[in-house]
Design goal:
Number of strands: 0
Helix content: 55-70%
Number of domains: 1
Low-confidence stretches: none
Distance between the termini: 24 Å
Order of helices and strands: HHHHHHHH
Shape: globular
CATH class: Alpha Beta
Mean pLDDT: 90
Structural class: mainly alpha
Length: 136
């Protein structure tokens, strides 16, 4: 659905992804580190989609993103170094704190439009909200 929205509003909607790995998912933090390491090589969205699209397999192998990195043509040794960079963990903590500060229910993925969580997750609701914002 997000890809559809971005295609419909290519000049009006900006996608911002913030990391909020749930502590109930022991692999979530490492997955976030892998996604941010992939970002350093210009492949954040591609890695993000692979991780979220295969999160059940990630529960069995938290280093599965290394396989995805190979598929994406990333430098594996660089990725291994990057996931240990404290700056990436600091970023995850900052982004998680931002979401906690909103007072919203903690669940992921969480979608906000101009800082407000839509009442439903469907294309009509989202486009209706966006169209309303763009008319103002």
């Amino acid at each position: 659905m997000i890809d559809e929205i971005l295609a419909k509003y290519p000049n009006d909607v900006k996608l911002v992804i913030k990391n909020f790995p749930l502590s109930s998912h022991k692999q979530a933090n490492k997955a976030a580190l892998y996604a941010l390491a992939a970002e350093r090589q210009g492949k954040y969205i591609e890695m993000y989609k692979k991780i979220f699209g295969n999160y059940q397999q990630l529960k069995k192998d938290e280093d599965l993103p290394l396989q995805y990195a190979v598929e994406l043509g990333l430098d594996i040794e660089q990725m291994k170094r990057d996931i240990t960079d404290p700056a990436l963990q600091d970023r995850i903590q900052r982004e998680a704190a931002q979401l906690k500060s909103t007072g919203l229910r903690m669940a992921v993925p969480k979608f906000l439009i101009n800082g407000v969580e839509p009442p439903k997750r469907d294309l009509d609701t989202y486009t209706g909200i966006i169209d309303g914002i763009l008319k103002n």
